[in-house]
Every structure is written in structure tokens, then in C-alpha cells.
């Protein structure tokens, strides 16, 4: 199963995103701890990380370089309130995959699912050998369609 981690200080945001992505067919880990985030990335359990603006008192801007050194292929999606242009520029320089405004309504959920699916597709296109044959055939958007 495709595994991702949600790391954020905001409990309600973690819970909401986790429910949404679990329902879409992903294996989701959640945490509010920077050390747990580092441990999961070190063990290469999650290939995609949704990271809040800060976690455990550590800003995303400070944490991303550490995480990218541990796993340069990690796809980091920042889910945060509105960021300033200079801050967003710095995050992009650190190698984030995507900046996502924290979802607040049902209209925002499709963007979250699309971005996560895209991150996994990029990993596949890059030839991530850790993605199994089962994962290669996984299509979360197709599996959640209502007919």
C-alpha cells in the first residue's frame, strides 16, 4: 500500500487529512513530533510527507533540509496557512514538492488527493525501486469515484 505521513502541530488538521487520505486508499501515519517524523523518514516507511508550517516547535523551513538529507527523493507537501512570498520562495529552494493551503472546506479535498496522487506518480516516473508492483497499479482517484 502507498504510505504517507502527515506531520503537523494542528490535531484537527492531521485528523481531517488522515481520514480523507485513508478513505482514498493510502496507508497514513500521523504525528505531531519532529523526532517521530525523522524516524519514519529514516526507516523509509513514507515516501510522501504532508508537513504543517511547524511541528514540535520546529518550523518547516528548518526541518525540510534535514529530511531531504535523510531521503533526497522524499516528496514534501507543505500544508499551511497563507505564507509570504519570500517564505514560499525559501521553501521551494529547499526542495518542497508542493505548497498547499490548509484545507478548510470540502472543495479543498480534491486538491489534496490530486497532489498526493501526483507525488506518488512522480516517484514512479523517477523509477523509485521501493514502489512495489502492487503500488504501481494503485489508482486512488479511480478507486474513490462515485458512479
Question: Descriptors for this entry?
Answer:
globular; Rossmann fold; single chain; 147 residues
Low-confidence stretches: 136-147
What is the straight-line distance between the termini? Answer: 24 Å
Instruction: Give the name of the CATH superfamily.
Output: Response regulator
Q: Which architecture would the CATH scheme give at its second level?
A: 3-Layer(aba) Sandwich
**Oligomeric state, counting identical vs distinct chains:** single chain
The overall number of domains is 1
Mean pLDDT: 84
CATH topology: Rossmann fold
Strand count, sense and closure of the main sheet?
Answer: 5 strands, parallel
Give the helices and strands as they follow along the chain.
Answer: EHEHEEEHEHEHHH
Amino acid at each position: 500500500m502507498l504510505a504517507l505521513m502527515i506531520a503537523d502541530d494542528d490535531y484537527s488538521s492531521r485528523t481531517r487529512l488522515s481520514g480523507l487520505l485513508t478513505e482514498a486508499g493510502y496507508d497514513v501515519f500521523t504525528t505531531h513530533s519532529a523526532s517521530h517524523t525523522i524516524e519514519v523518514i529514516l526507516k523509509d516507511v513514507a515516501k510522501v510527507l504532508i508537513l504543517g508550517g511547524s511541528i514540535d516547535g520546529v518550523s518547516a523551513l528548518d526541518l525540510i533540509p534535514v529530511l531531504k538529507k535523510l531521503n533526497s527523493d522524499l516528496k514534501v507537501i507543505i500544508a499551511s496557512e497563507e505564507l509570504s512570498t519570500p517564505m514560499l520562495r525559501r521553501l521551494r529552494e529547499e526542495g518542497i514538492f508542493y505548497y498547499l493551503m490548509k484545507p478548510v472546506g470540502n472543495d479543498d479535498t480534491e486538491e489534496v488527493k490530486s497532489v498526493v496522487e501526483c507525488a506518488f506518480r512522480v516517484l514512479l516516473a523517477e523509477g523509485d525501486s521501493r514502489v512495489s508492483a502492487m503500488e504501481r497499479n494503485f489508482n486512488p482517484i479511480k478507486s474513490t469515484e462515485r458512479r
